[in-house]
């Protein structure tokens, strides 16, 4: 399990809060990139943007599955 690698003194709530802060920073960065004029962006940079968007899309999909699973178990 992912949380097994964290020190024992930290709670699930603390670990989740850290990930929320980090993920918000990633989303803010992606929004800034999306708002840029992409005409003068190199092909290499475009691929970086595509890779980031694909990763965010996968994370969103997994988050949706987790949300459904948690709601069903309640």
Helix/strand layout:
Layout: H1 12-35, H2 43-73
Describe the structure.
By secondary structure, this protein is mainly α. The longest helix has 31 residues, at 43-73. The mean pLDDT is 86. It has helices spanning 12-35, 43-73. The chain has one domain (2-73). It has 2 helices and no strands.
Q: Work out the helix count.
A: 2
Work out the count of structural domains. Answer: 1
Unreliable spans are none
What multimeric state do the chains show? single chain
Number of strands: 0
Largest sheet: none
Strand proportion, as a percent range, falls in under 5%
User: What's the shape?
Assistant: elongated
Summary tags:
mainly alpha, 2 helices
What is the compact description of this entry?
This protein has 2 helices and no strands. It is mainly α.
